[in-house]
Design goal:
- 2 copies of one chain form a homodimer.
- Chain A has a single domain (32-172), classed as Winged helix-like DNA-binding domain superfamily/Winged helix DNA-binding domain (Arc Repressor Mutant, subunit A), CATH 1.10.10.
- In chain A, 55% of the residues lie in helices and 7% in strands.
- Chain A has 7 helices and 3 strands, in the order H-H-E-H-H-E-E-H-H-H.
- In chain A, strands 1-3-2 form a 3-stranded antiparallel sheet.
- In chain A, strand 2 and strand 3 (116-120) form a beta hairpin.
- The longest helix of chain A is centred in the N-terminal third of the chain and has 23 residues, at 32-54.
- The first copy, chain A, starts with 31 loop residues before the first helix and ends in an 8-residue tail after the last helix.
- Chains A and B meet through helix 1, helix 2, strand 1, strand 3 and helix 5 of A and helix 1, helix 2, strand 1, strand 3 and helix 5 of B.
- The structure holds a DNA duplex (30 and 30 nucleotides).
Chain lengths: 184, 184
DNA sequence: TCAGAAACGTCAACATGGCTGACATAAATT
DNA sequence: AATTTATGTCAGCCATGTTGACGTTTCTGA
């Protein structure tokens, strides 16, 4: 307890900037509020799943793989690498576990027999649905605060935050659907 | 190239769920769209900073510490631990580097001499401002898509996504300020 | 006043999940 | 037949999280 010396900058530790650091040219106000809100919102958002994943002995890496394989059945290994932006070796590690434990199955490509198409098993789908349920509860609560029109604004904002140059297949699919689901 | 066997579930790999998995009781629609938008938006959002940090030999952990120390001068070590939700040992590692390289300075607490209050140096503030500038550019672009009213909806949404039980000091400060900055 | 608690630092060891480089195999392509 | 592509895998490194233990300084309460 005692004192809350918080944000009460004491007798300046003398090594701090006396002047605004040369370039006063780029005087755009910084979006401190949104930056911090994104940090905390995302932290708690993924925290929902993290907690549950421990019970399965999985981590975030497993969740990401399971999520996209479940949502986009038939995803190739190469597709997954693009979406997750990790290396083959990193993916291999978690993918192997998910295959071994029966959360995902592979199927040789029909047209190109080199490909391994990935599919979630019932067990895998159940896990993803459970985790998505937790996150949905949080999202629903938050969307209630802004109403149906606000929800579309949120979707528009999030879409605009994403890089559009050279999108992977999953992103293409996401941007193909219109933003207004508008049936709330 | 060749075929895009994407999302065209082939002759079902037979281990997939035939039925919707018992409990049809919790039939809330899942927010797949928001879940995925958050994933991609946050990935690209932090990606802005990640790239720049490499040039300094720092990682995300350093960025997080620098950010909160800069934004909330005089933060105690214990405060930082609460905000970042990491252990003393993890924090110690990156904090030591930032102190050694002159991005942060410590000052013994006035009231309680056990405390080490943290302050960013000019060098540290410059780094944080540079990174925030990159992220601000992305945020500005995205907020333009939704207008001033939409921006407030976005802020409301993000705030509502954050856990409010037992908030740390930084969160208290954030939630103390009203949502409507409304001067865009 | 003095015992205990609090704030902080640190050592050692370990886990997860990124990374690079190298190499192998099967299948497609040219 | 030679090459390229899609995938898998081995070995090792790095960043950043973890637990457990222990030491010092300083504050606090009986």
């Amino acid at each position: 307890m005692a004192d809350i010396n918080f944000s009460t900058r004491p007798d300046s530790p003398d090594s701090r900037a006396p002047e605004p650091q040369a370039a006063a040219a780029d005087e755009r106000p910084l979006r401190w509020d949104i930056i911090e809100l994104l940090f905390f919102a995302y932290r708690d958002f993924v925290g929902d799943a993290d907690h549950e994943l421990e019970a399965f002995g999985f981590g975030r890496a497993h969740h990401r793989v399971m999520h996209f394989v479940t949502r986009y059945p038939g995803l190739k290994v190469a597709d997954l690498l693009e979406v997750l932006r990790i290396t083959k070796q990193s993916l291999g590690r978690v993918l192997k576990q998910l295959l071994d434990e029966g959360y995902i199955v592979q199927k040789t490509g029909n047209n190109d027999r080199r490909q391994r198409l990935l599919f979630a098993t019932a067990k895998g789908e159940a896990l993803v649905a459970k985790l998505a349920g937790l996150q949905t509860r949080r999202i629903d609560r938050a969307l209630e605060q802004v109403g149906p029109a606000g929800a579309d604004k949120v979707r528009q904002f999030l879409r605009a935050m994403i890089d559009r140059d050279d999108p992977d297949k999953v992103l293409e699919a996401i941007f193909k659907t219109p933003v207004t689901t508008a049936k709330e």
